[in-house]
Amino acid sequence: MTDQLEPVDETTKYKRKIDDSLARFSAAHDELEAEERERRERRDKLVARFEQTRTKLHRVVTVATSVVGQRGSAPVQEPEAEADEDASKAAPQTRLQEKKERRNHRTLLAARITAITLAVLVFIATGIAWGAKTWFNSQFNEIAALDENSADIQNAQGQLGDENFLIVGSDTREGAEAEENVGDASGIPGARSDTVMLAHIPKDRKRAVVISFPRDLEISRPDCERWDSASGEYGEVVEAADGVKLNSAFTVGGPRCVTKVIQQISGMAINHFVGIDFHGFKGMVDAVGGVTVHVDEPMEDQELGLIIAETGDVVLKGDQALNFVRARKVYGDPTFSDYGRMQRQQEFMASLLRATLSRDVLLDVGKLTGFVNAFAASTFGENIGVDQLLTLAQSMQGLSAGAVEFMTVPTVGEANDAGNEVLREADTEALFRALIDNTPLPGEEPEKPGPGAGDQQAADGTEPPEPA
């Protein structure tokens, strides 16, 4: 080393450069050695962890193999026992045994990697599905409608697990565009319930019953909060009224009021409300590629004109689909009234639900997203989401197999002096009592006992045992 205070000449400068280079080299060497030491420590830890994991995995596999091996002639020994036995024998492994052991280790490692990969894929798929479901649910327009603690509900305990959807089709023109050809809110203000359906799916999910209520059904409307169809908000209380039409309940009190009325009539616990208006309805139909209906002859309405010129199975889209469910005075319809329209609406709803639940829609992200967006734009309600709508749609899937029955609430069939349809109260009570108690509907035959049940009763005079 040189002294920094000695005279500086070329030789001194050269020595200093050498000293600096040696110092930098020494520092770099020390740093590299420290890094190498850290790498060795990390590698040793990883090796130790790997050996621990491999040992645990080997023990689990060995124990599992021993369980299977118990079916054979001799059980498999525990790893510790095998190790002791091997040590006592001290028999050297042959090259073939070593090769077999290495192959077994590779197989175990591959199985472990495969299991981890599958677990990760399942986790990712579950996360994606949960995110999509959350997004779908967030699109629906929630409006207060239910009264699940109503005193009008009969045998509430017996209805636990049942799914009752009140589906109301509203003729509100709020938000409708001129090209939709349904008018606007300035010309036709407010909202009326042109369609009222109660879809009942019992707890056992073995059937579904959809009951339609005429818009002109005479009711006694209870006290209801006034509803603003434009804002979806409730206001002051409107006093009860007798002898009014069912569609006026929605006009005055919106979803809450019509739910109260239907619960009064039926005694059923309504736990889902789905309101559908004209705005966006055509988008729902078009999003699934149209809805197929069957017509035996061209369909022409007194007010809407020619709706369908073809016969047979016809795919309806846009305005044609909307006119199909709106038409009330169809030539050739024996009822020439709201009853014929209710039947067509039931057919259309079932077909729409089947189309929505088809593989062509569920497996097509574009179609499914388009339907959800159109549904969100044209619907509102309470307790509606992906799970609830799938329950409804899957139940409607059984239509072709006879698992879904469409009905109209029993009425006298003729309008009274006020132009209202009047309920047949005894028949109505019997119908809804059967739904609440999950017994055969009026006119249905009870299920026949299984083979041999009658023989047992005839032989010993006892009743056949109840099914488990």
Account of the 3D structure:
The protein has helices spanning 10-69, 79-89, 95-139, 246-266, 281-287, 318-326, 338-356, 359-362, 365-378, 386-396, 425-437, 453-460, and strands at 163-170, 193-201, 208-213, 218-221, 224-228, 233-238, 241-245, 272-277, 291-295, 299-301, 305-308, 312-316, 379-382, 404-408. The model is unreliable at 60-85, 178-190 and 453-468 (pLDDT under 50). The chain is of the alpha+beta class. A six-stranded mixed β-sheet has the order 13-8-1-2-3-14, sandwiched between helices. It is built from twelve helices and 14 strands. The chain starts with 9 loop residues before the first helix and ends in an 8-residue tail after the last helix. The protein folds into three domains: 7-69 and 77-91; 94-138; 157-437, 3-Layer(aba) Sandwich (Aminopeptidase).
Report the radius of gyration as a whole number of Å: 38 Å
Tell me the name of the CATH class of the largest domain. Alpha Beta
Content-based structural category: alpha+beta
Which percent range describes the beta-strand content?
Answer: 15-25%
Counted up, domains total 3
How does the major sheet shape up?
6 strands, mixed
Provide a count of the helices: 12
Walk across the major sheet and give the strand order: 13-8-1-2-3-14
How far apart are the termini?
101 Å
CATH domain fold name of the largest domain? Aminopeptidase
- The H-level CATH homologous superfamily of the largest domain, spelled out, is LCP protein
Percent of residues in helices: 40-55%
Quick rundown:
The protein has helices at 10-69, 79-89, 95-139, 246-266, 281-287, 318-326, 338-356, 359-362, 365-378, 386-396, 425-437, 453-460, and strands spanning 163-170, 193-201, 208-213, 218-221, 224-228, 233-238, 241-245, 272-277, 291-295, 299-301, 305-308, 312-316, 379-382, 404-408. The chain is of the alpha+beta class and 468 residues long. The protein folds into three domains: 7-69 and 77-91; 94-138; 157-437, 3-Layer(aba) Sandwich (Aminopeptidase), CATH 3.40.630.190.
